[in-house]
TrEMBL record:
GO terms, biological process: proteolysis
Matching InterPro entries: MetalloPept_cat_dom_sf, Peptidase_M12A, Peptidase_Metallo
Domain Peptidase metallopeptidase as annotated: residue spans: 15-179
Listed name of the protein: Peptidase metallopeptidase domain-containing protein
Gene Ontology MF terms in the entry: metalloendopeptidase activity; zinc ion binding
PANTHER family on file: DISCOIDIN, CUB, EGF, LAMININ , AND ZINC METALLOPROTEASE DOMAIN CONTAINING, METALLOENDOPEPTIDASE
Pfam families the UniProt entry points to: Astacin
Organism: Candolleomyces eurysporus
Gene3D superfamilies in the record: Collagenase (Catalytic Domain)
């Protein structure tokens, strides 16, 4: 679980489908990454980050280039042990004065070998860096989960060092994003790398959400559909394709045809806009479904 303490302002609205931090060019976007003082980490810690982020590069047409002078990088990483693990979201990082860090890993350790916990936290924070928000704060969380707020607040007060105040727990765990703050989002994905671990007593449904250490199918699909491989560019993984991304996201009908057309034309802006339009239509259909069902029931009566 990430103890995320940095400001994480959303960077989008429904009217702006380009909510991800770094918009890819026709081929790819190279994002510079570096390690900064006072705790730039050991070579072992740095190598762990460099290895794990390759997973995001398989699914998003982005490249992370690690540069020697971390002070000049767009993403600047520190390893402050008592400062938790966190990242600024998307292009907010570009507003942070250099050489201040834009990402921190409080529990990526200098011991050899990458643990599953380390893999999960690195993927999670780089998810934030390319625009992903917390899954457990999705506007659609209420469809599946109702949090037991007193239990959640007490847990973070008891387990975090220093203890979290109620306001911090609400900001990082309990509060959901408004629908005007985010553009592309699905039904809450319990397997997303952006979903926090939750024991069963955290919610009234009694659902246990185990720690996620790898990208979910939807994490991968949304990465491709917002940072597509176009015009000869291809993932190192042959299974990463437009068809598989659309299948995983559940895109069908006219929207699927339109997205495929934009992809063929090499227009990533058009593709992203069509995908956002589809998510908006899906949400509108879900919102209208209860009213339609009620009207049908009344008519039958």
């Amino acid at each position: 679980m990430s103890n995320e303490t940095a400001p994480q302002q959303p960077v989008s609205t429904d009217e702006n489908p380009e909510w991800y931090s770094y918009c890819c060019s026709e081929l790819s976007k190279t994002i510079t990454v570096g390690f900064v003082n006072p705790t730039p980490g050991t070579p072992v810690q740095q190598a762990k980050v460099q290895e794990v982020v390759k997973e995001w590069e398989k699914h998003a047409n982005l490249k992370f280039r690690f540069i020697p002078n971390g002070n000049d990088a767009e993403i600047r990483i520190s390893f402050q042990l008592l400062n938790g693990s966190w990242s600024y979201i998307g292009n907010i990082a570009l507003q942070i004065a250099k050489p201040n860090p834009t990402m921190n890993y409080g529990w990526v350790h200098p011991t050899p070998g990458i643990t599953e916990e380390e893999r999960g936290v690195i993927l999670h924070e780089f998810g934030h860096a390319i625009g992903y928000l917390h899954e457990h704060q999705s506007p659609r969380r209420g469809e599946k989960l109702t949090l037991n707020e007193p239990v959640v607040i007490e847990y973070y007060k008891r387990t975090q060092n220093p203890p979290w105040e109620e306001a911090k727990t609400r900001a990082n765990v309990i509060n959901v994003y408004s629908r005007g703050e985010v553009s592309n989002f699905s039904a809450t994905d319990f397997t997303s790398i952006m979903m926090y671990y939750m024991p069963a007593n955290f919610n009234l449904q009694g659902i246990t959400i185990r720690p996620n250490r790898s990208l979910s199918a939807l994490d991968k699909a949304y990465a491709f559909l917002n940072y597509p491989f176009l015009r000869g560019a291809a993932s190192v993984d042959p299974n990463v394709t437009l068809v598989n991304a659309l299948n995983a996201a559940g895109v069908t009908g006219t929207a699927r045809t339109n997205i495929a057309a934009e992809y063929t034309e090499g227009d990533w802006r058009g593709l992203r806009a069509e995908f956002t339009r589809w998510t908006l239509n899906q949400r509108a259909a879900l919102a209208s479904a209860p009213a339609e069902a009620e009207a049908e029931a009344a008519a039958e009566a």
